[in-house]
Design brief:
CATH class of the largest domain: Alpha Beta
Largest sheet: 5 strands, antiparallel
Helix content: 25-40%
Number of strands: 11
Structural class: alpha+beta
Strand order of the largest sheet: 1-2-5-11-6
CATH architecture of the largest domain: Alpha-Beta Complex
Number of helices: 12
Distance between the termini: 27 Å
CATH topology of the largest domain: paralog of FGE (formylglycine-generating enzyme)
CATH superfamily of the largest domain: paralog of FGE (formylglycine-generating enzyme)
Number of domains: 2
Length: 393
Amino acid sequence: MTFPLPHRVLRILAPSVLAPLVAARSEEPPRPAQVEFNRDIRAFGRNQRRREFFSAPASRRAMRSSMPPNLRRTPRSAMKASPNNRVTMVAKFFKLPTDPMNPSAIMKLSRILQTVVLFFFLATFSVAADASYPQWDGKETVAEYAKRASLAPTLTLDLGGDVKWEGVLIPAGAFVMGSPAGEAKTEQQSAMEKQHKVTITRPFYLGKFELTQAQYEKVTGENPSGTKGDDLPVHNVSWQNAQDFCEKLGQQLGREVQLPTEAQLEYACRAGTTTAYHSGNTIADLDKAGWYGANSGGRPHRGGEKLPNAWGVYDMHGNIREFTRDCFADAPPEDATDPTGPKDGDPKNHVVRGGGYSANAAVVLNCRAAIRKPTEALAITGFRVLVAVPAGK
């Protein structure tokens, strides 16, 4: 397969690609057969022009005769009819001496250039294919963003046996992670929640609800939860249990399934808000959005009974604490793009988010969007999963 050679690309590449090859070939002595062949080409072109000139109407002949010689272009038909027009065109374009050169050399140079241009095209296409997804503009709905990003706003996966998983598209975007001064209860907690800018470059599908016991049991064949119920969130699991579930489900579906990072989970929880809870700053606002000690009755609840956030995700505050992918570290965070937590953290201590149904009035701040806790109290800890979208459009 061949491709047309853009003049600008050729003029840029010609000095570095062609000069050494042309110099090497030009040192060869002229070949009599080639000289004769090139003379035949030129004679053919002259004869073709004469035939077209005398067969043209008198008015066109008069007009052409009055033109300066340098403006009398060779008819396109002569170029097409030439038995080796590509050799002539390449040599003429690069102002190469045609007579002493073997036409096969020019043909090789032409193919080399075509290969270079092809690689240039493929590299450009590869970069374009890996282009970043658009950033959320801060105002549009998930459906509007999904349309702009050419993605589905929701994702439903069949786990088998009428058990399905529902995911909501979380747009790529940037936000201020952490809590403002005075929101956290202690100075130590405030330092760990230091505000910083985080950019999420790749959208993803996040579980609309916390993972249920039916979903967990369908994939693993086990249900370690203390309070049983197919539609209740799975709990009393370790981080490794959650990680193993994601790996097994990913293999089963042929998709990239993971725990969300700490940044992804807070970003999805806030859904563009800056308040302590996605529903507001007060305990009354928390009561609308999550289950905690004052309204849970001391037990977990099925997903979807409280108000979702602006992106359609439920139970991001309270109910069941949720594991993230990140190892826990109490060092103040810094601005980052797609952060994944400390690389040298304790593999047995991961960040949990969101607070739980047992949080009473004294510790209700543990249900805030910015709250981050180490691995503890597995009896009230579960998770929700993330399904990745392709790396580029």
